[in-house]
Amino acid sequence: MSTGSVNYINYNTDQSVRIFDKFYKYEANVPAAEYDIVLSFFKQQMGDARVAGNFTVSLFQVAEQTGIPALTLLDGFQGSNLMTINLNMAYYLNKIRSRATLLGVNAQTVPNYYAARTVLQ
Q1: Backbone angles phi, psi at 31, to 5 degrees
Q2: Would you say residue 119 lies in a domain?
Q3: Contact call for residues 58 and 66 (beta carbons, < 8 A)
Q4: Which residue, 49, 75, 77, 80, could crosslink 84 as a Cys pair with Cβ 3.0–4.6 Å?
Q5: Contact between residue 64 and residue 57 where contact means Cβ atoms under 8 Å apart
Q6: Does a structural domain hold residue 2?
Q7: Which residue has the higher pLDDT, 88 or 117?
């Protein structure tokens, strides 16, 4: 009779990715295929690999907390522009975070030229 563990993970055949966020102390194991799909979508939309990685981790965190599959959430972003993606991610993250740390997306305000001239330094 074997004395080995039944739940032993063979890292040569395991097809999952371990993601983590040091700031929020979040860790998860996700299927590698799903991770690649989500990361490539955000890389295409964002143009910056670091931002895409942060959005990817956030999407998997939302998926775990809400119980909605990550690819289902990603389907909601298909065909959206960058501003809509930011708004959707802010909405989902606000649902799982503390009410004291709400996120929002706001277009940059353009200052009034004449009002800006009257500011004394």
Answers
A1: -60, 135
A2: no
A3: no
A4: 80
A5: no
A6: no
A7: 88
What is the rounded distance in angstroms from the CA atom of residue 59 to the CA atom of residue 71? 9
The answer as to whether 113 is a domain residue is no
pLDDT single digits (tens) 7-52: 445 555 556 777 766 666 777 788 888 888 999 999 998 888 888 8
pLDDT at 114: 65
The per-residue DSSP string of 10-63 comes to -TTT--EEEEEETTTTEEEEEEHHHHHHHHHHHHHHHS-HHHHHHHHHHHHHHH
How far apart, in Å, do the first and last CA atoms of the chain sit? 83
Domain residues for the domain of 100 are 16-105
Domain count, the chain: 1
**Cα–chain center distance at 59:** 4
Tell me the per-residue pLDDT of 61-116, one tens digit each, with 9 for 90 and over. 889 888 889 999 898 888 888 888 888 888 888 887 766 666 665 656 666 666 65
In a domain, 115, yes or no: no
